[in-house]
Amino acid sequence: MRILMPAALLAGGLAAGGLAVSVLAAPLFTTLPTGMYVPVHKGLVTRFDPFMPISLLSCLLCDIALVVAAPQTAVRLLAALGALLLAAAMTVSLTKNVPINRWLSTLDPQALPADFERLDPRERWIRWNRVRGALAVTALLANVGATAVLI
Predict the structure, then answer these.
(1) DSSP 3-state assignment of 151?
(2) Contact 136/12 with Cβ under 8 angstroms?
(3) Which pLDDT does position 110 carry in this prediction?
(4) What is the average pLDDT value for the chain, to the nearest integer?
(5) What is the rounded distance in angstroms from the CA atom of residue 4 to the CA atom of residue 68?
(6) Do residues 72 and 45 touch, judged by C-beta distance below 8 A?
(7) Phi, psi of 77 (to 5 degrees)
(8) Cβ neighbours of residue 121 under 8 Å, at least 6 residues apart?
(9) Does residue 29 contact residue 123 with C-beta atoms inside 8 Å?
(10) Is a pLDDT exceeding 80 seen at residue 109?
(11) Which of 15, 48, 104, 151 maximizes the CB count within 10 A of its CB?
(12) Does the structure show a pLDDT above 90 at 139?
């Protein structure tokens, strides 16, 4: 418990904080002209990889270990809730945000496809980013609750 709980809090805090920052920065995307949006998005995404996946996965693994090793049922249940929320955040990342990031990484900002305006992913990316941010913050709160039970 002396290692798992602080590690879960640290990794979960980093993940929730990183996603919160990206949630706060996301409205900037909607104000940028299309030609500027693509390079700004690319630049921000590369700053968060591999930091975010490592943080999310580390916290998830700590929560799974807490489900197995925690002495109190309440801690095990809160850790299980945290793990489920983190798994959901990772699923949103992998199925919604990452495909958009990958597509944008293939684009040349100087030669965007003619139909980019129709395909513009900003609103979808922001919506799913808010979802995964909320999931990560809620998982962190579950881990804070588990820590409170241990104390």
Answers:
(1) coil
(2) yes
(3) 87
(4) 92
(5) 11
(6) no
(7) -65, -45
(8) 100, 103, 104
(9) no
(10) yes
(11) 15
(12) yes
pLDDT higher at 22 or 124:
124
Q: Amino acid identity of 77? A: L
Q: Taking CA 117 as the corner, what is the angle to CA 27 and CA 128, rounded to the nearest 5 degrees? A: 40
Q: Which helix (H) or strand (E) holds 13?
A: helix 4-31
Q: How far apart are CA 129 and CA 23, in angstroms?
A: 6
Give the position of tokens 């929320």.
85
**Per-residue pLDDT tens over the stretch 51-107:** 899 999 999 999 999 999 999 999 999 999 999 999 999 999 999 999 999 999 999
Joined tokens for residue 150: 């241990």
- Written as six digits, the tokens of 10 are 């640290």
Q: How far out from the chain centre does Cα 13 lie? A: 11
